[in-house]
């Protein structure tokens, strides 16, 4: 049961061969190339971080790209909705393999910074221990680190009828917020740092996995902030 990534690869036809053909993949924590599973281990390995869920090539900002992400997404694909005025959906990223499915999803959106100039935002949902959100936030670990949530929350996101607090995370050259929704880490990271002002108001979220939403997504050029090999 293969699954296609990006454009071109069809995903089927990997049966009957001793070796699967893999797309390029990277460590979700450091971005370095990872080693493929072997006959002795079904896990992908980073030389620095050990067994990891491989970061896949970015999915294009298109319906096809989104479908590629959602095909095996085991965590929410959070989209701020409605989008801030003038903002576009600018791509998707995921970490995971054929065996595990995608265990970390990143949705990129981009648009005008209320304080001037362009801005980018990545919204990440992931299972604990993967580290994609922390890497996007510029941190070394796999979670927000010691002291997290010791201060009052700095922002609120809402999903369905529920509000969820986010705490600001100390991170370099960007504004990063993290919280927990239904057992998954949720990260919102914005560039430049001043774009964090967008979270002064609570933002609504949609999980793009939910069927029948019929969202008319405005797609833009791929975000330069998307993590991908
Ligand atoms: Zn690594």
What best-fitting shape do the alpha-carbon axes yield? globular
The count of helical stretches stands at 2
Helix content: under 10%
Residue stretches low in confidence (pLDDT < 50, at least 5 long) are: 1-20
Describe the structure in your own words.
The chain is globular, with a radius of gyration of 17 Å. It has helices spanning 63-70, 132-136, and strands spanning 44-46, 50-52, 78-80, 88-97, 101-112, 118-126, 155-159, 162-169, 175-181, 184-191, 203-207. It has a domain at 61-207. It is built from 2 helices and 11 strands, in the order E-E-H-E-E-E-E-H-E-E-E-E-E. Strands 3-11-7-8-9-10-6-5-4 form a 9-stranded mixed sheet. Residues 1-20 have low confidence and may be disordered. The structure holds zinc ion. Zinc ion (ZN) is lined by residues 27, 29-30, 32, 46, 48-49.
